[in-house]
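Sorry, explain these tokens?

***
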Amino acid sequence: MIRTALAILALGVSLGAQAANTPLDDAIAALGHGWAKASYSTPDDQQEKAFDALISRSESVAKAYPGRAEPLIWEAIILSSAAKAQGGLGALSKVRAARKLLEQAEGIDPTALNGSIYNSLGTLYAKVPGWPLGFGDKDNARKYLLKALQINPDGIDPNYFYADLLAEEGKTAEARTHLERALAAPPRPGREDADAGRRAQVKQLLAKLNER
């Protein structure tokens, strides 16, 4: 059940262009590339192991840079993706931990990684089962996804995730609009691997909507 609920929960982020790379930038970029490889280039039966290794790496980065939001965001993203790969009730502990990390990151820098906190929170609330199993809540999902769009209105991730919520609600025309915006999103320097994977998801959802 959890696997189904998280079937498309592959949370991405917008790193944005950096004037000069710092050790933190490099560590974050490495996590991003590792996540993209595990998400889009790793067989399903090997993903859980890949994400578990990334969890350990993300925890180390977060410990090395206390008081920074970016490592917390990536740790949350990786935990969420690990939950998808794991499936079952055991995945709930991971998504709860991810939510806590995102809330901590929000307290540090709400706009970190171009609004990725709200992309990730919104998608968690949209995809995690509701009470009594989980904390899923469509109203909270909408609230956070709209916040993400306010910060990054042209981004591929916020438009895709909001379109997915709209599609679930049967708002096909509005969902198509945001999917088209996602396809037109500017490329993210250094995130070519994640962009390619996300664009494939956008096209898949758009094709599904066009069949209705």
